[in-house]
Amino acid sequence: MTHSAPAAALRHYINGTWEEGTGSVLTSVNPARPGETVAHGPQASTEQLDRAVAAASAAARAWAGTPMHERGAILLRAAGILERDQERLGLELAREEGKTRAEAQGEVLRAAQILRYYGNEGDRSAGEVFSSPRRGERILVVRKPLGVVGVVTPFNFPIAIPAWKIAPALAYGNTVVWKPASTVPLLALRLAGALAEAGLPAGVLNLVIGPGSLGSALVEHPRLDGLTFTGSTGIGRRLAAAGAARGVPVQAEMGGKNAAVVLRDADLDLAAEQVLLGAFRSTGQKCTATSRLIVDGAVADYFLDRLRARLDAWVTGDPADDGVHMGPLINGAAADSVSAGVEAALAEGAELAYQGKAPGRADPDGGFFLPPTVLELPGDPAAGAANTAWREEFFGPVLSVRRAADAGQAFELANQSEFGLSAAVFTQDVTRVLDAVDSLDVGILHVNSESAGADPHVPFGGARKSGYGPKEQGGAAKEFFSHTTTVYLRGGNPG
Ligand SMILES: NC(=O)C1=CN([C@@H]2O[C@H](COP(=O)(O)OP(=O)(O)OC[C@H]3O[C@@H](n4cnc5c(N)ncnc54)[C@H](OP(=O)(O)O)[C@@H]3O)[C@@H](O)[C@H]2O)C=CC1
Ligand SMILES: O=C(O)CCC(=O)C(=O)O
């Protein structure tokens, strides 16, 4: 079935006005049918970025002085607009990013839920009051915005990740300059459009669509007061270093190499279903995706058979079509890099435990599809640990398996990574659950559910080298998007 639509014109939102870019031309395509253009037009230039930062800077004082309930009311109206348009936006997201229509529509609703959470922030505590060791005094800790915040976002959650950065930034009184991933500009236009339609004053949110170099120009900009980034580890570290050199706070959410641990007492059917979803939903392109599976040797053969049986029913194809479970990768370079990773892993001794079917890439208009793939890594501990598929984030539909002798060894293997974003553990034994909580060094732990998925009201982010700076979402977002002033408060005449 085809779901094509006319290509959208690329625009940039600067100081409350939609304008044409003055940079080179950008085209985003449907990764399932790369001949189909989704959005097209000139990118923003550095002169436009400069004007966007100037507009955000000019709007900062008035926005910071706007009552939080008024700021929140705009976010709540924007949430309603996303809910109203959820079907159309879900289809557009599936066409531009490649996740299935159901997941895409779910992501639009998740963005709305995030806007609602921060829209209601005015009803929550805005600071703290301490008693003082001196008579007639109280000590208040009040929160203030940073000022102008840069937001740089990845392709894989084109509306939810921007929402969970932009909504708290705005709720706590910052103004924003946003540079989205250049593979998914259409959804950026839609989110900025919803916030503009909801009544955001001019200059409070500015959208500049353009290449990665605009992101580095942003962190170097003398009027920037903070930068929040999600994306690859290399770029996140460079931005963090650039921010540190200038004294600008940076929050960076980066890579993951997340493990699912299946213990011998687990409900193995439930675990097989959840590992399947964690590894292959969104084509494995989630920072929280399950890319390593550690299964107790006593149940490994049975478990892998259950997983293979589920994979036999897993359909890869056009994500806009009903009945499809997995779409393409975001672009040809991503698909090539994942294929190269699989080849390297096989050359280093991995065995192909399963490879599913996917539409071919040979046709010039063939989408960037890859089959779901399961690799069993060498049993030798050193060879297993050294295998490329164990160490490197592929960001694609590949699951690497190792067997463990017992729970203790399984947790050791799970910690065998420089990353520590999320993990899943499958067991029915509460003692094992408590062991997992104590021993797994991750920012997010799912017990008897897949390693991906996060709610807006609780902290999100990684341990180890997965994250830098304060965590995102829930109350944690406040730590990054505001700073504190401690007020020693006495009456004028203590008597
Ligand atoms: N921990 C987490 O929460 C998450 C982590 N990720 C990680 O992100 C990666 C995949 O996302 P992807 O979009 O490919 O990541 P990238 O790091 O390639 O891109 C992320 C953003 O950074 C921009 N960018 C590119 N180069 C520069 C630069 N030199 N300076 C500043 N900004 C730059 C990109 O722009 P452009 O698109 O124009 O190149 C994009 O907007 C994976 O490694 C994944 O683990 C993804 C989502 C969540
Ligand atoms: O697990 C989730 O739903 C969020 C994951 C995420 O932020 C990401 O993959 O970019």
Automatic annotation (TrEMBL):
<dbReference type="InterPro" id="IPR016162">
    <property type="entry name" value="Ald_DH_N"/>
</dbReference>
<dbReference type="InterPro" id="IPR015590">
    <property type="entry name" value="Aldehyde_DH_dom"/>
</dbReference>
<keyword id="KW-0560">Oxidoreductase</keyword>
<dbReference type="InterPro" id="IPR029510">
    <property type="entry name" value="Ald_DH_CS_GLU"/>
</dbReference>
<dbReference type="GO" id="GO:0016620">
    <property type="term" value="F:oxidoreductase activity, acting on the aldehyde or oxo group of donors, NAD or NADP as acceptor"/>
</dbReference>
<feature type="active site">
    <location>
        <position position="253"/>
    </location>
</feature>
<dbReference type="InterPro" id="IPR016163">
    <property type="entry name" value="Ald_DH_C"/>
</dbReference>
<comment type="similarity">
    <text>Belongs to the aldehyde dehydrogenase family.</text>
</comment>
<dbReference type="InterPro" id="IPR016160">
    <property type="entry name" value="Ald_DH_CS_CYS"/>
</dbReference>
<dbReference type="Pfam" id="PF00171">
    <property type="entry name" value="Aldedh"/>
</dbReference>
<dbReference type="InterPro" id="IPR016161">
    <property type="entry name" value="Ald_DH/histidinol_DH"/>
</dbReference>
<feature type="domain" description="Aldehyde dehydrogenase">
    <location>
        <begin position="18"/>
        <end position="487"/>
    </location>
</feature>
<protein>
    <submittedName>
        <fullName>Aldehyde dehydrogenase family protein</fullName>
    </submittedName>
</protein>
